[in-house]
Design a protein that fits this description.
By secondary structure, this protein is of the alpha/beta class. It has a single domain, classed as TIM Barrel.
Amino acid sequence: MAAACARANRDPSSVTLLAVTKTQPPEVVSEAADLGLTLFGENKVQEAKGKIPLCSGRLSWHMIGHLQSNKVRDAVELFSMIQSVDSLHLAEEINKRADQAAKTLPILLEINIVGEASKFGYKPEQLLLDFERLNSLPRIEIQGLMTIPPWAPLPERVRPVFRQLRELKSQCEQLLGAPLPHLSMGMTGDFEVAIEEGATIIRIGTALFGERPRIKA
């Protein structure tokens, strides 16, 4: 992280490491917390619902996986940010549940930059059409964009995706008339390139914890 920041002339403190703990038990989370990590990400609400209460209350948790509408109420309760808002309908449901909980919830808008059929996320052009309505929802706070790039054997091949996300954030900032603080992009295989292209949150699992344990059927 420090080397990538140096190449990009960025302050290392401008990049936050989010530890992805999908399938990892609470004991592993505790070990990571003891080493100084404070921000963790989960992909599934049901797994998070069983895990987060067993972990230290001083940790912060982000929802980073696809969120179904029927899981929004639990997600609003469990997470300090939802990074995977991929439609106006989902944003409206989050807004409704956050209002019921009397809280305002920070979100990131997930973007499917290249339109992969196998991935969720806003198409860039649809995001720009919906942005004003998204921003009008009183119980959500748009803090930036998130993406999961296509798999590539070489990190350099996904640089254009990260660059496009940064450029899309600039377009959203023009519509908003204010800066958006976050770009969540980059994982174990490509986080250095993501940092060079402006990532403020990188989501790391394998590099921290090794290959995910298999879940027994």
